[in-house]
Specification:
The chain has four helices and nine strands. It is of the alpha+beta class. The protein is globular and about 60 Å long.
Length: 168
Amino acid sequence: DAEPLSVPLAIEPVEAIRSSMRIGHADPNRHLSVTISFPFGDPDGMQRFADAVSDPNSPTYGQFITPDEVGARFGLPLARIQAIAEHMKSNGLDITFTARHRLAITCEGTLDRFEKAFKTTIDTYAVDVMLAPDALAGGNAEFIAPSAPLQLPADLAPDVLDVSGLET
């Protein structure tokens, strides 16, 4: 079986990398909890619903719906979310939460498993106080972050809006 074509996700790298020095590869055994966010399957329908339920002149004013109903009416099809979850599981990650509104899943596992799932490298960086003298105010002197764009198979990538938790 040939591996499916992977494409980069449209997610910007962590801003702090620009004013930091790469120390080296992050601990591959470090445990991470990562949330993958999805777009609405029907963003225009969701906007119309939100506008109507919030408009005192609308016949549906105040008629809110449950997270399950949000997912069924406006979320991605379950099969598409399941395909992303299966990709994560096939890379040794555990799915620990699936949002009822179909806008996110949370996965847990080791850093090396996330590197494999997203075809990236996660490195440790140190803030360079010469480049960013105010960077340490309330922040960490060292952090981890992907040093290469995150990638997913081409059939899954369009369904991912954001990935959080691969950085500290």
